[in-house]
Automatic annotation (TrEMBL):
<keyword id="KW-0464">Manganese</keyword>
<dbReference type="InterPro" id="IPR039763">
    <property type="entry name" value="ARMT1"/>
</dbReference>
<dbReference type="InterPro" id="IPR036075">
    <property type="entry name" value="ARMT-1-like_metal-bd_sf"/>
</dbReference>
<feature type="domain" description="Damage-control phosphatase ARMT1-like metal-binding">
    <location>
        <begin position="78"/>
        <end position="366"/>
    </location>
</feature>
<protein>
    <recommendedName>
        <fullName>Damage-control phosphatase ARMT1-like metal-binding domain-containing protein</fullName>
    </recommendedName>
</protein>
<keyword id="KW-0378">Hydrolase</keyword>
<dbReference type="InterPro" id="IPR002791">
    <property type="entry name" value="ARMT1-like_metal-bd"/>
</dbReference>
<keyword id="KW-0479">Metal-binding</keyword>
<dbReference type="Pfam" id="PF01937">
    <property type="entry name" value="ARMT1-like_dom"/>
</dbReference>
<comment type="similarity">
    <text>Belongs to the damage-control phosphatase family. Sugar phosphate phosphatase III subfamily.</text>
</comment>
Protein backbone atom coordinates (compact mmCIF):
# COMPACT_ATOMS: atom_id res chain seq x y z
CA UNK A 1 0.00 0.00 0.00
CA UNK A 2 1.32 3.45 -0.97
CA UNK A 3 1.33 5.58 2.19
CA UNK A 4 2.30 8.73 0.32
CA UNK A 5 -0.61 8.84 -2.16
CA UNK A 6 -4.36 8.31 -1.90
CA UNK A 7 -6.41 6.60 -4.57
CA UNK A 8 -10.01 7.69 -4.93
CA UNK A 9 -12.21 4.79 -3.81
CA UNK A 10 -14.01 3.59 -6.92
CA UNK A 11 -11.71 5.40 -9.38
CA UNK A 12 -8.19 3.94 -9.37
CA UNK A 13 -7.13 6.40 -12.08
CA UNK A 14 -7.54 9.26 -9.61
CA UNK A 15 -4.66 9.60 -7.14
CA UNK A 16 -3.19 12.50 -5.17
CA UNK A 17 -0.37 13.05 -2.65
CA UNK A 18 -1.42 12.67 0.98
CA UNK A 19 -1.25 15.95 2.93
CA UNK A 20 1.63 16.03 5.42
CA UNK A 21 2.75 18.80 7.79
CA UNK A 22 6.07 19.63 6.21
CA UNK A 23 4.96 23.19 5.48
CA UNK A 24 2.04 25.58 5.21
CA UNK A 25 -1.11 25.32 7.28
CA UNK A 26 -0.65 21.76 8.62
CA UNK A 27 2.82 22.64 9.88
CA UNK A 28 1.41 25.61 11.78
CA UNK A 29 -1.20 23.37 13.43
CA UNK A 30 1.44 21.01 14.81
CA UNK A 31 4.06 23.62 15.58
CA UNK A 32 1.94 26.51 16.90
CA UNK A 33 -1.57 25.40 17.64
CA UNK A 34 -0.88 22.17 19.49
CA UNK A 35 1.40 23.80 22.10
CA UNK A 36 -1.28 26.47 22.71
CA UNK A 37 -3.86 23.76 23.03
CA UNK A 38 -1.79 21.94 25.66
CA UNK A 39 -1.40 25.18 27.60
CA UNK A 40 -5.18 25.66 27.57
CA UNK A 41 -5.76 22.15 28.84
CA UNK A 42 -3.39 22.75 31.76
CA UNK A 43 -5.04 26.11 32.39
CA UNK A 44 -8.51 24.61 32.43
CA UNK A 45 -8.03 21.53 34.61
CA UNK A 46 -5.96 21.59 37.85
CA UNK A 47 -4.11 18.38 37.07
CA UNK A 48 -1.47 17.20 39.56
CA UNK A 49 2.27 17.57 38.83
CA UNK A 50 2.78 14.12 37.27
CA UNK A 51 0.01 14.73 34.72
CA UNK A 52 1.28 18.25 33.97
CA UNK A 53 4.70 16.74 33.35
CA UNK A 54 3.28 14.14 30.98
CA UNK A 55 1.23 16.74 29.07
CA UNK A 56 4.20 19.08 28.76
CA UNK A 57 6.30 16.11 27.67
CA UNK A 58 4.15 15.92 24.55
CA UNK A 59 5.35 19.39 23.62
CA UNK A 60 8.88 18.08 23.25
CA UNK A 61 7.82 14.75 21.86
CA UNK A 62 6.24 16.29 18.76
CA UNK A 63 9.54 17.93 17.88
CA UNK A 64 11.34 14.57 17.91
CA UNK A 65 10.72 11.20 16.26
CA UNK A 66 7.32 9.51 16.60
CA UNK A 67 7.39 7.20 19.63
CA UNK A 68 5.08 4.28 20.45
CA UNK A 69 2.19 4.79 22.85
CA UNK A 70 3.25 4.41 26.46
CA UNK A 71 -0.10 3.05 27.71
CA UNK A 72 -1.81 -0.27 27.17
CA UNK A 73 -5.40 0.91 27.09
CA UNK A 74 -7.90 -1.18 25.07
CA UNK A 75 -7.20 0.29 21.65
CA UNK A 76 -3.40 0.43 22.14
CA UNK A 77 -2.80 -2.71 20.07
CA UNK A 78 -4.70 -1.22 17.16
CA UNK A 79 -2.76 2.00 17.50
CA UNK A 80 0.48 0.02 17.45
CA UNK A 81 -0.57 -1.35 14.05
CA UNK A 82 -1.57 2.07 12.75
CA UNK A 83 1.66 3.60 14.05
CA UNK A 84 4.03 0.91 12.74
CA UNK A 85 4.79 2.61 9.38
CA UNK A 86 5.49 5.94 11.06
CA UNK A 87 7.47 5.15 14.23
CA UNK A 88 10.83 6.90 14.30
CA UNK A 89 9.84 9.40 11.62
CA UNK A 90 9.22 13.09 12.15
CA UNK A 91 5.67 14.10 13.10
CA UNK A 92 5.85 16.65 10.31
CA UNK A 93 6.51 14.24 7.48
CA UNK A 94 3.75 11.69 8.13
CA UNK A 95 0.12 12.24 7.05
CA UNK A 96 -1.33 15.31 8.76
CA UNK A 97 -4.60 13.56 9.61
CA UNK A 98 -2.73 10.68 11.21
CA UNK A 99 -0.38 12.94 13.19
CA UNK A 100 -3.28 14.98 14.60
CA UNK A 101 -5.12 11.83 15.65
CA UNK A 102 -2.03 10.38 17.28
CA UNK A 103 -1.50 13.65 19.14
CA UNK A 104 -5.03 13.58 20.61
CA UNK A 105 -4.69 9.90 21.53
CA UNK A 106 -1.41 10.62 23.34
CA UNK A 107 -2.89 13.65 25.05
CA UNK A 108 -5.77 11.59 26.44
CA UNK A 109 -3.35 9.03 27.83
CA UNK A 110 -1.19 11.78 29.36
CA UNK A 111 -4.19 13.32 31.16
CA UNK A 112 -5.20 10.02 32.75
CA UNK A 113 -8.45 9.85 30.76
CA UNK A 114 -8.19 6.08 30.33
CA UNK A 115 -7.54 5.46 34.00
CA UNK A 116 -7.60 3.79 36.35
CA UNK A 117 -7.32 6.64 38.79
CA UNK A 118 -9.02 9.86 39.81
CA UNK A 119 -8.59 11.54 36.41
CA UNK A 120 -10.26 8.73 34.52
CA UNK A 121 -13.02 10.10 32.24
CA UNK A 122 -12.25 13.71 33.14
CA UNK A 123 -12.59 15.56 29.83
CA UNK A 124 -9.41 17.66 29.40
CA UNK A 125 -11.41 20.03 27.20
CA UNK A 126 -14.41 20.03 29.55
CA UNK A 127 -13.86 23.52 31.03
CA UNK A 128 -13.52 25.06 27.55
CA UNK A 129 -16.61 23.29 26.27
CA UNK A 130 -18.63 24.20 29.36
CA UNK A 131 -17.61 27.85 29.09
CA UNK A 132 -18.70 27.91 25.45
CA UNK A 133 -22.05 26.33 26.32
CA UNK A 134 -22.66 28.71 29.23
CA UNK A 135 -21.42 31.77 27.32
CA UNK A 136 -23.18 34.74 25.77
CA UNK A 137 -22.91 33.51 22.18
CA UNK A 138 -24.94 30.41 22.97
CA UNK A 139 -27.22 32.54 25.17
CA UNK A 140 -27.95 34.82 22.20
CA UNK A 141 -28.79 31.79 20.06
CA UNK A 142 -31.22 30.55 22.69
CA UNK A 143 -32.94 33.95 22.69
CA UNK A 144 -33.09 33.88 18.90
CA UNK A 145 -35.10 30.66 18.97
CA UNK A 146 -38.25 32.69 19.68
CA UNK A 147 -37.91 34.35 16.27
CA UNK A 148 -37.40 30.96 14.62
CA UNK A 149 -40.99 30.15 15.57
CA UNK A 150 -42.13 32.69 12.97
CA UNK A 151 -40.41 30.84 10.16
CA UNK A 152 -41.93 27.82 8.47
CA UNK A 153 -41.26 25.43 5.59
CA UNK A 154 -38.28 26.06 3.37
CA UNK A 155 -37.48 29.40 5.01
CA UNK A 156 -37.10 27.70 8.39
CA UNK A 157 -35.03 24.87 6.95
CA UNK A 158 -32.80 27.38 5.18
CA UNK A 159 -32.16 29.28 8.37
CA UNK A 160 -31.40 26.09 10.30
CA UNK A 161 -29.11 24.57 7.69
CA UNK A 162 -27.12 27.81 7.44
CA UNK A 163 -26.84 28.03 11.25
CA UNK A 164 -25.69 24.41 11.43
CA UNK A 165 -23.18 25.17 8.68
CA UNK A 166 -21.68 28.41 9.99
CA UNK A 167 -21.86 27.23 13.60
CA UNK A 168 -18.95 25.03 12.55
CA UNK A 169 -16.71 28.12 12.45
CA UNK A 170 -17.00 28.40 16.20
CA UNK A 171 -14.82 25.42 17.13
CA UNK A 172 -12.52 26.03 20.06
CA UNK A 173 -9.35 24.92 18.31
CA UNK A 174 -10.09 27.32 15.51
CA UNK A 175 -10.51 30.19 17.96
CA UNK A 176 -6.89 29.59 18.98
CA UNK A 177 -5.85 30.41 15.46
CA UNK A 178 -8.21 33.32 14.91
CA UNK A 179 -8.91 35.04 18.21
CA UNK A 180 -12.07 37.11 17.93
CA UNK A 181 -13.39 35.17 14.96
CA UNK A 182 -17.10 35.17 15.54
CA UNK A 183 -18.60 34.02 12.31
CA UNK A 184 -19.71 37.47 11.21
CA UNK A 185 -16.85 38.33 8.85
CA UNK A 186 -17.05 38.12 5.09
CA UNK A 187 -18.40 34.71 4.32
CA UNK A 188 -19.33 32.87 1.17
CA UNK A 189 -20.72 29.56 0.08
CA UNK A 190 -18.39 28.20 -2.59
CA UNK A 191 -20.61 25.25 -3.44
CA UNK A 192 -24.29 25.45 -2.65
CA UNK A 193 -26.28 22.24 -3.11
CA UNK A 194 -29.18 23.35 -0.92
CA UNK A 195 -31.67 22.73 -3.72
CA UNK A 196 -30.69 19.05 -3.69
CA UNK A 197 -30.39 18.87 0.09
CA UNK A 198 -33.79 20.22 1.16
CA UNK A 199 -36.00 17.56 -0.45
CA UNK A 200 -33.67 14.86 0.89
CA UNK A 201 -33.98 16.33 4.39
CA UNK A 202 -37.74 16.68 4.32
CA UNK A 203 -38.42 13.28 2.73
CA UNK A 204 -36.03 11.19 4.84
CA UNK A 205 -37.56 8.85 7.39
CA UNK A 206 -34.21 7.99 8.85
CA UNK A 207 -31.53 10.64 9.10
CA UNK A 208 -27.99 10.21 10.33
CA UNK A 209 -26.25 13.38 11.49
CA UNK A 210 -22.53 12.94 12.08
CA UNK A 211 -21.88 15.82 14.43
CA UNK A 212 -18.77 17.87 15.05
CA UNK A 213 -18.36 20.57 17.70
CA UNK A 214 -20.29 21.43 20.85
CA UNK A 215 -21.76 24.85 21.67
CA UNK A 216 -22.62 27.06 18.73
CA UNK A 217 -22.47 24.12 16.35
CA UNK A 218 -24.28 21.36 18.24
CA UNK A 219 -27.08 23.71 19.25
CA UNK A 220 -28.30 24.40 15.68
CA UNK A 221 -27.71 20.73 14.83
CA UNK A 222 -30.17 19.79 17.56
CA UNK A 223 -32.64 22.45 16.50
CA UNK A 224 -32.47 21.11 12.95
CA UNK A 225 -33.06 17.56 14.22
CA UNK A 226 -36.04 18.80 16.23
CA UNK A 227 -37.59 20.47 13.17
CA UNK A 228 -37.25 17.28 11.13
CA UNK A 229 -38.72 15.16 13.92
CA UNK A 230 -41.63 17.51 14.59
CA UNK A 231 -42.39 17.66 10.86
CA UNK A 232 -43.35 13.99 10.45
CA UNK A 233 -44.10 11.38 13.09
CA UNK A 234 -42.35 8.49 11.31
CA UNK A 235 -38.95 10.18 11.26
CA UNK A 236 -36.02 9.02 13.39
CA UNK A 237 -32.73 10.92 13.75
CA UNK A 238 -29.40 9.38 14.70
CA UNK A 239 -26.81 11.71 16.17
CA UNK A 240 -23.32 10.28 15.82
CA UNK A 241 -20.86 11.66 18.37
CA UNK A 242 -17.34 10.88 19.56
CA UNK A 243 -16.81 8.28 22.30
CA UNK A 244 -13.99 10.31 23.88
CA UNK A 245 -12.60 13.86 23.90
CA UNK A 246 -11.28 14.73 20.48
CA UNK A 247 -10.04 17.75 18.52
CA UNK A 248 -10.82 19.99 21.50
CA UNK A 249 -14.50 20.70 21.00
CA UNK A 250 -16.00 17.59 19.44
CA UNK A 251 -19.28 16.46 20.95
CA UNK A 252 -19.61 13.31 23.07
CA UNK A 253 -22.87 11.84 24.47
CA UNK A 254 -22.56 13.89 27.66
CA UNK A 255 -22.26 17.07 25.58
CA UNK A 256 -25.55 16.29 23.83
CA UNK A 257 -27.24 15.90 27.21
CA UNK A 258 -25.69 19.12 28.53
CA UNK A 259 -26.85 21.01 25.44
CA UNK A 260 -30.38 19.68 25.78
CA UNK A 261 -30.34 20.75 29.43
CA UNK A 262 -29.07 24.22 28.46
CA UNK A 263 -32.09 24.47 26.15
CA UNK A 264 -34.46 23.28 28.87
CA UNK A 265 -33.06 25.90 31.27
CA UNK A 266 -33.25 28.65 28.64
CA UNK A 267 -35.93 31.16 27.66
CA UNK A 268 -39.44 29.81 26.89
CA UNK A 269 -39.02 28.88 23.21
CA UNK A 270 -35.69 27.18 23.95
CA UNK A 271 -37.09 25.40 26.96
CA UNK A 272 -40.02 24.03 25.01
CA UNK A 273 -37.64 22.74 22.35
CA UNK A 274 -35.33 21.21 24.96
CA UNK A 275 -38.22 19.37 26.60
CA UNK A 276 -39.30 18.07 23.21
CA UNK A 277 -35.77 16.79 22.54
CA UNK A 278 -35.80 15.00 25.89
CA UNK A 279 -39.07 13.39 24.87
CA UNK A 280 -37.67 12.38 21.46
CA UNK A 281 -34.65 10.85 23.19
CA UNK A 282 -36.76 8.86 25.59
CA UNK A 283 -39.06 7.66 22.80
CA UNK A 284 -36.13 6.51 20.63
CA UNK A 285 -36.92 8.97 17.85
CA UNK A 286 -33.72 10.88 18.57
CA UNK A 287 -30.84 8.48 19.13
CA UNK A 288 -27.26 8.99 20.22
CA UNK A 289 -24.72 6.74 18.54
CA UNK A 290 -21.02 6.50 19.17
CA UNK A 291 -18.27 4.30 17.80
CA UNK A 292 -14.47 3.89 18.25
CA UNK A 293 -14.07 4.55 14.52
CA UNK A 294 -14.84 8.22 15.14
CA UNK A 295 -11.60 8.70 17.08
CA UNK A 296 -9.42 6.46 14.90
CA UNK A 297 -6.91 7.82 12.36
CA UNK A 298 -8.99 6.43 9.51
CA UNK A 299 -11.09 7.79 6.68
CA UNK A 300 -14.69 6.88 5.82
CA UNK A 301 -13.77 4.42 3.06
CA UNK A 302 -12.19 2.44 5.94
CA UNK A 303 -15.32 2.55 8.12
CA UNK A 304 -16.22 -0.78 9.77
CA UNK A 305 -19.12 -2.88 8.48
CA UNK A 306 -21.52 -2.04 11.32
CA UNK A 307 -21.23 1.68 10.63
CA UNK A 308 -21.47 1.22 6.86
CA UNK A 309 -24.68 -0.72 7.44
CA UNK A 310 -25.99 2.13 9.56
CA UNK A 311 -25.21 4.66 6.80
CA UNK A 312 -26.75 2.36 4.19
CA UNK A 313 -29.98 2.09 6.18
CA UNK A 314 -30.31 5.86 6.43
CA UNK A 315 -32.21 7.86 3.83
CA UNK A 316 -29.66 10.62 4.24
CA UNK A 317 -26.38 11.05 6.12
CA UNK A 318 -25.21 14.58 6.88
CA UNK A 319 -21.57 15.07 7.88
CA UNK A 320 -20.64 18.19 9.78
CA UNK A 321 -17.38 20.10 9.82
CA UNK A 322 -13.90 20.17 8.45
CA UNK A 323 -12.47 16.99 9.86
CA UNK A 324 -15.42 14.85 8.78
CA UNK A 325 -14.99 16.34 5.31
CA UNK A 326 -11.29 15.42 5.26
CA UNK A 327 -12.21 11.89 6.30
CA UNK A 328 -15.03 11.71 3.75
CA UNK A 329 -12.99 12.67 0.68
CA UNK A 330 -9.51 11.66 1.91
CA UNK A 331 -6.92 14.15 3.16
CA UNK A 332 -5.02 14.50 -0.09
CA UNK A 333 -4.07 17.21 -2.53
CA UNK A 334 -6.98 16.54 -4.87
CA UNK A 335 -7.33 19.21 -7.54
CA UNK A 336 -10.12 21.42 -6.16
CA UNK A 337 -12.09 20.95 -9.39
CA UNK A 338 -12.30 17.16 -8.87
CA UNK A 339 -16.01 16.25 -8.90
CA UNK A 340 -17.41 15.58 -5.39
CA UNK A 341 -18.93 12.41 -6.81
CA UNK A 342 -15.51 11.07 -7.81
CA UNK A 343 -14.29 10.91 -4.20
CA UNK A 344 -17.57 10.09 -2.45
CA UNK A 345 -19.02 7.54 -4.88
CA UNK A 346 -18.29 4.76 -2.37
CA UNK A 347 -20.83 6.11 0.16
CA UNK A 348 -23.71 3.63 0.55
CA UNK A 349 -26.54 6.16 0.21
CA UNK A 350 -27.28 9.86 -0.09
CA UNK A 351 -24.64 11.93 1.67
CA UNK A 352 -24.30 15.65 2.37
CA UNK A 353 -21.38 17.65 3.77
CA UNK A 354 -21.88 20.93 5.64
CA UNK A 355 -18.39 22.31 6.10
CA UNK A 356 -16.63 25.61 6.64
CA UNK A 357 -13.15 25.50 5.14
CA UNK A 358 -10.51 25.21 7.86
CA UNK A 359 -7.90 23.09 6.09
CA UNK A 360 -6.50 22.79 2.58
CA UNK A 361 -8.47 19.93 1.11
CA UNK A 362 -11.40 20.70 -1.22
CA UNK A 363 -13.19 19.22 -4.22
CA UNK A 364 -16.17 20.17 -6.35
CA UNK A 365 -15.14 23.76 -7.01
CA UNK A 366 -15.86 25.56 -10.24
CA UNK A 367 -12.64 26.26 -12.25
CA UNK A 368 -13.29 29.99 -12.64
CA UNK A 369 -14.02 30.38 -8.92
CA UNK A 370 -10.78 28.58 -8.13
CA UNK A 371 -8.78 30.93 -10.34
CA UNK A 372 -10.47 33.93 -8.73
CA UNK A 373 -9.83 32.71 -5.17
CA UNK A 374 -6.22 31.80 -5.86
CA UNK A 375 -5.64 35.24 -7.39
CA UNK A 376 -7.16 36.97 -4.35
CA UNK A 377 -4.11 36.35 -2.16
CA UNK A 378 -6.42 35.33 0.68
CA UNK A 379 -5.84 32.22 2.76
CA UNK A 380 -9.27 31.18 1.58
CA UNK A 381 -8.84 27.45 2.17
CA UNK A 382 -8.14 27.83 5.87
CA UNK A 383 -9.64 31.16 6.98
CA UNK A 384 -13.07 29.76 7.88
CA UNK A 385 -14.66 32.52 5.80
CA UNK A 386 -15.79 30.09 3.12
CA UNK A 387 -18.02 27.08 3.24
CA UNK A 388 -19.54 24.37 1.11
CA UNK A 389 -22.82 22.47 1.12
CA UNK A 390 -22.20 19.45 -1.07
CA UNK A 391 -24.55 16.59 -1.81
CA UNK A 392 -23.99 13.31 -3.53
CA UNK A 393 -27.14 11.41 -4.46
CA UNK A 394 -26.79 7.65 -4.58
O1 LIG B 1 -14.09 21.07 14.01
P1 LIG B 1 -13.77 20.85 12.60
O2 LIG B 1 -14.59 21.69 11.68
O3 LIG B 1 -13.79 19.43 12.20
O4 LIG B 1 -12.32 21.39 12.38
C1 LIG B 1 -11.24 20.84 12.97
C2 LIG B 1 -10.11 21.23 12.11
O5 LIG B 1 -9.17 21.85 12.89
C3 LIG B 1 -7.91 21.39 12.54
O6 LIG B 1 -7.48 20.61 13.60
C4 LIG B 1 -6.97 22.43 12.30
O7 LIG B 1 -7.55 23.29 11.41
C5 LIG B 1 -8.09 20.61 11.29
O8 LIG B 1 -7.13 19.71 11.23
C6 LIG B 1 -9.45 20.08 11.45
O9 LIG B 1 -9.89 19.68 10.24
Amino acid sequence: MDLERLTAPGDPSLTAPVITSTDGFPRSVLRDRHPELLARVLDGVPYPPEIRLAVNGLLHEIEGPILPLSDTHGDAALWAEWAAPYLGRSWYEVPFLWAENYFYRKLLAATGWFGPGPWQAVDPFGPQKDAELAGDAVGAELEALAALGELAGEERLDSLVLSALWGNRADLGFALQRPGADGRARTALLVDDRAALFPLLTDADRIVLITDNVGRELLPDLVLADTLLVGRSGVTAWLHVKPSPYFTSDAMPIDVLKTVQRLVDGPPAASELGLRLRQFLSEGRLNIVTHPFYVAPLTYPQAPADLVKHYAEADLTVLKGDLNYRRLIGDAEWPATTPFEAVTGYWPGHVAALRTLKSDVLVGLDASRLTELDASGEKWRTSGDYAVIQVRQA
